[in-house]
């Protein structure tokens, strides 16, 4: 069979409805030959997000796709995504994560929110969601994040100063990666790790290199057969990446645990934020905390940094939108005051800017669900349980029926000022439902606080020498070239 298990409507549905229900066999299928041609001859392999748009034109909103062991039903319309997500199971699954679980099994480390499944996943999320998921939870991290934003601003001043024009910041993605890693580490480890210092500490640099190593060897490890692992060095490098990641995060978590233990031993009150909560208020062991904190961290860096990069890139190209944002920020936070987590709640345009940047560049451009427990009917088609669905939400967020003039950056389409707002399933950059992104509120807080402060201090302008920037799909949507921006100071005051 093409997808799913062996059940069919004939043995699961009431006989009256059987005649109207179609199956996967009635859907168009992308031929393997065509898929290879598009990927490797037409060069779509790193523009899979654009392939969604192209294939919708060829096959319509629902089609079969597959390569090797991987087979899936592509859903490529707002209506179908809404139907699938609304019919979601109690313990939704995105599919096979054995590439990540293998290392955890090898070292006896607990699974985190990405790798855990079923009821165990549900229980884990119940613990992890606390102090993270509610908008008011993120407010408590406002001061911690603002300290990191201050260091980012200092670094922007420094980089401008040493640039030939006196206001250029080159390779913005790299700077925002450093900001984002520092921001999420300061929340998850409750300590600073020095990513924004001029010289990054050696241990932190090793950690950054290990993350890059693990990600870059993931694809070859997934593609190569298991028997090649003892022959080729690829698997060894991949495992070495994980070793470096867990060595660093394990050390920081152990240090926190020791500090908590000392306070407990001396009858002092234990105070702290997320990590302290996980270590002292839940029944999680250290090895379980390693697994979860590390997965939260890995999910929270490139996603946040690239979204900020796209938002700033767009603002530099749409000066009117940038000006509207500046007016809002300077009205809500006048003078030298630094925007706080409470202040950003009074800035609807700021939120709309991020929402629109995520619509145009949803950094995670596709997502998946696999029905574990139940058969399902989607778009009038029957699918047996274990069917895998690919959610083509990059394409739906570019659909002009939901978003008129989709290639234009129009934050105002998200404002709640009486206008008809787009279907919420049109743009789902953080996923949906109980399995949706756990770090959404933290990511939003980081982006709001950084962007509002930057826009208050600087007018950002494009660097014409870099040409037209396009998105490449490298697990997340990144720029196809180095992005530079001019940061023109709005006043003479260096308000830090
Ligand atoms: C702009 C920033 C971010 C974007 C666009 C984003 C997007 C996503 C998406 C699309 C998913 C899949 C959700 C689903 O299947 O319904 C996800 C899951 C997840 N995200 Fe994020 N994310 C961002 C930032 C973060 C941050 C900062 C963290 C950590 C604090 C984080 C942690 C996670 C985790 C752990 C999961 C897996 C949740 C689970 O399976 O239960 N993300 N994210």
Can you walk me through this structure?
- It comes from Oncorhynchus mykiss.
- This protein is α+β, with helices and mostly antiparallel strands.
- 49% of the residues lie in helices and 10% in strands.
- It is built from 19 helices and twelve strands.
- It has helices at 15-18, 32-41, 48-59, 78-86, 98-107, 118-129, 135-139, 142-162, 172-188, 202-223, 234-265, 274-280, 286-300, 302-317, 319-332, 341-344, 348-360, 393-396, 440-457; strands at residues 22-23, 62-67, 70-75, 168-169, 367-370, 376-378, 381-383, 388-391, 458-462, 471-474, 476-479, 485-489.
- The strands form four sheets. The protein has a four-stranded mixed beta sheet, with no helix packed on it. The chain has a three-stranded mixed beta sheet with strand order 1-7-6. A three-stranded antiparallel beta sheet has the order 4-12-9.
- A hairpin with a 1-residue loop joins β10 (471-474) and β11.
- It is globular.
- The relative contact order is 0.16.
- Bound molecules: protoporphyrin IX containing FE (HEM).
- Residues 94, 113-114, 125, 184, 295-296, 299-300, 303-304, 307, 363-364, 367, 429-432, 435-439, 442-443 line the site of protoporphyrin IX containing FE.
């Amino acid at each position: 069979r093409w997808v799913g298990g062996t059940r069919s409507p004939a043995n699961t549905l009431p006989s009256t409805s059987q005649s109207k229900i179609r199956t996967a066999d009635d859907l168009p299928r992308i031929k393997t030959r065509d898929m290879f041609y598009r990927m490797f001859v037409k060069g779509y392999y790193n523009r899979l997000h654009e392939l969604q748009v192209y294939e919708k034109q060829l096959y319509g909103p629902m089609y079969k796709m597959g390569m090797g062991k991987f087979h899936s039903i592509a859903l490529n319309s707002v209506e179908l995504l809404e139907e699938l997500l609304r019919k979601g199971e109690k313990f939704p699954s995105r599919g096979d994560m054995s590439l990540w679980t293998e290392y955890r099994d090898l070292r006896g480390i607990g699974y985190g929110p990405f790798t855990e499944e079923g009821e165990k996943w549900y229980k884990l999320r119940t613990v992890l969601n606390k102090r993270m998921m509610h908008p008011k939870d993120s407010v408590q991290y406002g001061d911690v994040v603002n300290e990191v934003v201050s260091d980012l601003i200092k670094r922007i001043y420094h980089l401008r100063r040493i640039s030939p024009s006196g206001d250029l910041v080159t390779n913005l993605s790299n700077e925002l990666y450093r900001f984002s890693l520092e921001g999420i580490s300061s929340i998850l480890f409750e300590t600073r790790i020095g990513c924004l210092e001029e010289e990054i500490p050696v241990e932190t640099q090793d950690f950054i290199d290990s993350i890059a190593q693990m990600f870059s060897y993931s694809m070859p490890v997934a593609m190569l057969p298991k028997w090649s692992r003892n022959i080729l060095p690829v698997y060894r490098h991949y495992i070495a990446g994980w070793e470096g990641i867990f060595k660093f995060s394990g050390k920081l978590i152990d240090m926190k645990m020791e500090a908590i233990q000392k306070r407990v031993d001396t009858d002092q009150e234990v105070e702290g934020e997320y990590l302290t909560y996980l270590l002292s208020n839940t029944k999680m062991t250290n090895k379980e905390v390693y697994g979860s904190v590390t997965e939260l961290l890995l999910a929270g860096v490139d996603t946040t940094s690239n979204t900020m990069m796209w938002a700033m890139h767009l603002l530099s190209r749409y000066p009117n939108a940038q000006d509207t944002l500046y007016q809002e920020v300077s009205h809500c936070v006048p003078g030298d005051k630094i925007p706080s987590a409470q202040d950003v709640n009074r800035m609807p345009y700021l939120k709309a800017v991020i929402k629109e940047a995520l619509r145009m560049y949803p950094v995670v451009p596709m997502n998946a669900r696999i029905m574990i427990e139940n058969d399902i009917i989607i778009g009038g088609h029957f699918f047996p349980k274990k069917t895998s669905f690919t959610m083509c939400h990059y394409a739906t967020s570019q659909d002009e029926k939901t978003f008129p003039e989709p290639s234009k950056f129009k934050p105002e389409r998200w404002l709640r000022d009486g206008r008809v707002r787009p279907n919420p399933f049109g743009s789902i950059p953080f996923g949906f439902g109980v399995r949706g992104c756990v770090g959404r509120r933290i990511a939003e807080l980081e982006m709001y606080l950084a962007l509002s402060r930057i826009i208050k201090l600087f007018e950002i302008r494009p660097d014409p020498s870099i040409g037209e920037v396009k998105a490449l799909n490298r697990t997340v949507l990144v720029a196809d070239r180095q992005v530079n921006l001019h940061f023109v100071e709005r006043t003479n005051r260096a308000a830090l």
